[in-house]
Amino acid sequence: MAEKKTKRRDFLFTATYAVGAVGVGAVVWPMIDQMNPDASVKALASTEVDVSTVNPGNTITVLWRGKPVFIRRRTQDEIEEAKSVKMEELKHPEKDEDRAKNPEWLVMLGVCTHLGCVPLDQKGDYNGWFCPCHGSHYDISGRIRKGPAPTNMEIPEYKFVDANTIKIG
Amino acid sequence: MSDHEYTPQSKAGKWFNDRLPLLTLANHLTDYPTPKNLNYWWTFGGILTFCLITQIVTGLTLAMHYIAHADMAFESVEHIMRDVNYGWLIRYIHANGASMFFLAVYIHIFRSLFYGSYKAPREIIWIIGIIIYLLMMAAAFMGYVLPWGQMSFWGATVITNLFSAIPFVGEGIVTWLWGGYSVDNPTLTRFFTLHYLIPFLILGLVVLHIWALHVPGNNNPVGIDIQKPSKDTVPFHPYIVIKDGFALLMFMIVFAFFVFYTPNILGHADNYIEANPMVTPAHIVPEWYLLPFYAILRSVPDKLLGVIAMLSAIFILAALPWLDTSKIRSAVFRPLYKQFYWILVADVLILGYVGAMPAEGLYLLIARVATAYYFIHFLVILPVLGFKEKTLPVPLSITEPVLGGSPNLAMAKNKESLTK
């Protein structure tokens, strides 16, 4: 008899805890989610850039989602250098062809994948970018070659709207 | 705690105290028996309380003039500096006050390390202290972001990006912390809110810290348990109040020197340039008080492991009461520990120095050796030392070395000689 009573109480306790947990969760989640990007931040998702004035061997930097995007018009030598790198030498193996669909134009997030600084153009041991914060070296394809950064600089979604205009995002 | 019952003398006092025993608490605090041999290293608890109150008062007044918005924050800080009556003074006290707070807390922590104040029965005091220290770092970091200069912006970017090292969910956490895709206005407003909140959390923890302290009472330079109250103790008021007050005055001279003569020496010139998400300053470094941990972060060539090493360097302190296996508290009676203690002090200073230097060449090598030694000290040397070290004989009371003439002779005394 005593055993049966305990079981009924256990059921009531468990049911109460479960309902309570759902209630607490329903209140806590909005408090957490309010910190995520809001609708106005999400709305600023794409940027169009006119690249007609960029000469070979030059880089322009544009702001997209509050972050710098490097658009580099690469010279023929640079393209060949980027393509000639063997995959075994890379910490994060990616072919240059996969990073720059049009090899003349390298479009990538100018954000070091270590801790988010903006790397400097035409610096470092690999003739590409160098991050001043913690010493990561990137090559002319934006691939990590030396230093603490774990991955290559990210390629955002982009497309050529026409010959002179790139739409990022 | 003082064991005797307290009854207020006035009738009104008795009436009030029966309903809310605040006078009993005040009496406990004034009569609180304190070891009579406390040296000046023990005055930093009071100094730290002063620092906290200073930061809260100056912070409240600054918040009356500051605007937490990415477009206006930088200008509002300049407005405080140029237009607000005594704004320059209040801001310089607040900015240098953070450095003074850390200076005092590091002395306080290293005093505990030297005299073994973290050991039983004071583990909870120590752990609350470590939590306060963590909150101090969070408050200081977020406060440094508020002027929205270049160092503010890029410091915030680098530190929040530490979370991106967490596998799978890291990127999501960083976006959540930012409230966007980069450090921006939503980040600034939430940092301001939290920067405002944390000092009050610290205040609450300070009450717990002192409460936990008043259960076993203060440790002391000799590091032995004492009878309270006894010949070995003096009441907190007036003895310790006067001593703490004098030390506080000396500390305030140093504080005032920074505020009035070199108010910007501990900051970075780059922070007088408004935040620019397109350009990272050539050499970003955190404030001086975070440099040792920054050096540990940079000495590990892997992102995730670097973050883990840096956080472990802080959290390892919480485990210290169990890592140190020696029963003897004070380094005065631990000849080997005393030497390792000073090596650790040097190690942390070296880490701080290389943390401010570029992470390359010889600096990187030194940082790696110093990082390795930091962990070896806590994980290998301290546990082993407790078993291997030949400690010196500990006196039976604080009074014994004094009455016995030469302290060293007295330390060698055994119990029989005292009872004779």
Describe it for me?
The complex is a heterodimer of chains A (169) and B (420). Chain A is α+β, with helices and mostly antiparallel strands and 169 residues long. In chain A, the strands form three sheets. In chain A, strands 5-6-7-8 form a four-stranded antiparallel beta sheet, with no helix packed on it. In chain A, a hairpin with a 4-residue loop joins strand 5 and strand 6. The longest helix of chain A is centred in the first third of the chain and has 32 residues. By secondary structure, chain B is mainly alpha-helical. Helix content of chain B is 64%, strand content 1%. Chain B contains 18 helices and two strands. Chain B has a two-stranded antiparallel ribbon with strand order 1-2. Chain B is globular and about 70 Å long. Chains A and B meet through loops of A and helix 7, helix 8 and helix 12 of B.
Number of helices of chain A: 4
Count the helices of chain B. How many? 18
Query: What is the oligomer described by this structure?
Result: heterodimer
From the N-terminal CA to the C-terminal CA of chain A, the straight-line distance is 68 Å
* Anisotropy-based shape of chain B: globular
Poorly predicted segments of chain A: none
Strand content of chain A: 25-35%
Greatest chain-chain contact: A-B, 27 and 38 residues
Approximate helicity band of chain A: 25-40%
Give the C-alpha Rg of chain A: 25 Å
Write the layout of secondary structure elements.
The complex is a heterodimer of chains A (169) and B (420).
Chain A: H1 2-33, H2 39-43, E1 47-50, E2 58-64, E3 67-73, H3 76-84, H4 96-99, E4 105-109, E5 120-123, E6 128-130, E7 137-138, E8 144-146, E9 158-162, E10 165-168
Antiparallel strand pairs in A: 1-10, 2-3, 3-4, 5-6, 6-7, 7-8, 9-10
Chain B: H1 11-19, H2 22-31, E1 33-35, H3 44-63, H4 73-82, H5 87-115, H6 123-145, H7 150-161, H8 170-178, H9 185-214, E2 233-235, H10 236-261, H11 291-299, H12 303-315, H13 320-323, H14 335-356, H15 361-388, H16 399-403, H17 407-412, H18 415-419
Antiparallel strand pairs in B: 1-2
Helix pairs in contact in B: 3-5, 3-9, 3-10, 4-5, 5-6, 5-10, 6-7, 6-9, 11-12, 11-14, 11-15, 14-15
